[in-house]
Amino acid sequence: MSNTIVESTYGKLQGEKIDGVFAWKGIPYAKPPIGSRRFRAPERPDSWEGIRDATLFSPVAPQPQREIMEFFGNDISNMSEDCLYLNVWSKGADNKKRPVMVWIHGGAFVSGSGSSSWYDGASFAAQGDVVVVTINYRLGILGFLHLGEIGGEEYATSGNCGIQDQVAALHWVQENIAAFGGDPNNVTIFGESAGAMSIGVLLGFPLAQGLFHKAILQSGAAANVHSSAKATKIAGHLLAALQVEPANLSKLEELPVEQLIKASDLVPSMSLGPVIDGILLPRHPEEAIADGSAKNVSILIGTNKDEYNIFSAFDPEWKNADEIRVTKLFEKTFGPLVPLISSYLGGNKPLSLELYNKLLTMSIFTYPAQKLTELQVKQGAPVWMYRFDWETPVFGGALKSTHALEIPFVFNTLNTPNTENFTGSSPERQLLANQMHQAWINFARRSNPNTENLPEWPMYNLNERSTMIFNLESTVENDPNRQERITWEQATMMMKS
């Protein structure tokens, strides 16, 4: 038998070997979530006879076109509801029990896929002898439409279909990864943006307990979940737009998927995401984590210095915005808090794009990451914190250390298509990629990211708050966001009072 052929639980898979690394693509981990399986929990896939070709990626989950995702190289030319597939890279289908890393992609819960060229697992396999798995999961309206309050028991968990898909993929890993040379008892889940936010949910998701042992959260934490009431309101808007009566939800299973995706564009960004449904997610993941739901999970977590810059750069409302327009944008985002922001956080300087970016970086990314870190540290769990400070020269330097910029450094995929238009092409980039790539490998291998080519990286504690600052010359700083952190804590306390 060729060593590119692997016997999985469901049948044989024929992969391919490229430059010493084996890859198996488009492996089904659940039945196609179509027809009556729309808005339902994933089901185990069917077995097959003979040898299944596993040399091509599967279609990506249905999703809207997004300019920013195109900039990130997201390819939606092959989309289908039949999208619940994963991909595996390994040095060999043997009994070596290598560390396993399972990547959960970002894209605001509405975009992305596991087959992006940025997420190629070949370098992790070649340089780290790690088995890498990347997955698709249901997105947007198909993954996170909460119909439980409207449709009753039949749809009780529909608001978390996307998270259930991720859990199903982790079950597949437990059952199958040994056949691909991986160790099911050494699984690290890692993800960025909505992928990291998903991991924040999985840390407090009872059905995910024991399916992974370590977690890396890049620019996302455990703050991004909707209450059942809010999610029900969003679902009501979408049902009205689709002209589906609450008493006739089965009509949703018959509508063309294009119609569903088009309707989902009518609700604000991040309206569709994980839901505290009282069943699969009984309470806010931060509460569960505070009570020790993830106390046995080692965590590596961090953010980028200027996360929000790319979002405002792609927001047409910020193009040539004058003072009146800037004020309106602040009021639209922060409402009655604008006077407080102006005096307390802005130092009474004029409202500006720079302040806007800084506030949204802090509120959406930095502060939730610090909160999750504090909750884990209080449980005695090992945590390492980083901040990515390397600035891209593209767009005249305006993006700085923006959202998603660290991904091709982590994966060591700087030479893949659609990367130089984001990172530039300076050869020195590779030095930083070497550092980050090895740190992630070491964390997956032995629960500690320290490497020979980085300064000593202490575990995070609430006194020093040691943080690795990734740059061409990486350094460790204690509490690098101290002033912002304290100011933000004081401001949020004032907002609540």
Task: Report on this structure.
The termini are far apart. The strands form two sheets. An eleven-stranded mixed beta sheet has the order 3-4-6-8-7-9-10-11-12-13-14, sandwiched between helices. By secondary structure, the protein is an alpha/beta fold. The protein is built from 17 helices and 14 strands. The protein has one domain: Rossmann fold, CATH 3.40.50. Helix content is 34%, strand content 16%.
Quickly describe the structure.
The chain is of the alpha/beta class and 497 residues long. It has 17 helices and 14 strands.
Descriptive keywords:
single chain, globular, alpha/beta, 11-stranded mixed beta sheet, 3-stranded mixed beta sheet, 17 helices
Output the radius of gyration.
Answer: 22 Å
| Count of distinct strands | 14
Q: What CATH architecture would you give?
A: 3-Layer(aba) Sandwich
Task: Return the structural class.
Answer: alpha/beta
Give the distance, in angstroms, between the N- and C-terminal Cα atoms.
69 Å
